[in-house]
Write a structure and sequence with these properties.
globular; TIM Barrel; 18% strand; alpha/beta
Amino acid sequence: MTARTQLRTRRLGSTGPTVTSPGLGCMGLSGAYGRTDDAESVRVIHSYLDAGGTLLDTGDFYGHGHNEMLIGRALADRDRDEVVLSVKFGALRGPDGTPVGYDARPEAVQNFLTYSLNRLGVDHLDVYRPARLDPDVPIEDTIGAIAEMVDKGHVRHIGLSEVGAETIRRAAAVAPISDLQIEYSLLTRGIEDEILPTCRELGIGITAYGVLSRGLIGGSGAVDGGLRAMPRFQDGNREHNEALVARVREIAAEKDATVAQLAIAWVAAQGEDVLPVIGARRPGQIDSMIASNAVRLDADDLARLGELIPRDAVRGDRYPSAHMAELDSER
């Protein structure tokens, strides 16, 4: 079975675009988890597109704009209509890369969008979303500003990222929301309480990131780049969490799959409205992530996985404390 025949499509909510599953998360191609090579990164994107993949997820602050320029380079000779570009905006960075807050004012929305369109070399974005809730700007104002960009043809659909149920409702009252991007994995299941049911009530899809828990699931074991600051990799937490993941190796073997493929399949099995977004840094990883679609998990498999990795069994927050405090989804 080829990668192309294994690709599936899912729609982002009741109003969003149809995309391939899994989607390709591009953050790691701009140094977030260690050094990268631009030529190799372009090959990763091309490998995904050549396999029939359509969804590229990025943020204007990934690599301080580098990631968008990289994607623009990769798409220079490609048909724009065959690619779905999902872009986050609003995260502010200092010259040394230090986070310095968020800006989701209507004026900032237009400004960030202008730079994204230029760096990507396109005339519209398929999904545009604030990376986080700006505590100083009502979500209605931000979504209203993006809706104006939809009316003008610069954006096709509006998304959200890392917000809670109340904010989701307020945003959806202003304009249709295609999907919520939020962390969801075997090790991170907090959205199941309120956020996921709210999205389903409103017809909003989930684009799940962190599906492999930044390499805790199926990773190489190396702790590079920003991973050193992540609590789940610190103070003995890493050993505990890796032992949790080791519990599912037998099931993966039974499915003739890797642990990573099993974890991707678990997220995909949570519903047709849930789309895993997976990062890759080498072309060979593309076939592996797409092959996760061949892993079939029935109700007994899902129950067994739930017993092996109970909810909240992971140790350590998913971000450092300062970042956790910024997450509307965690309030």
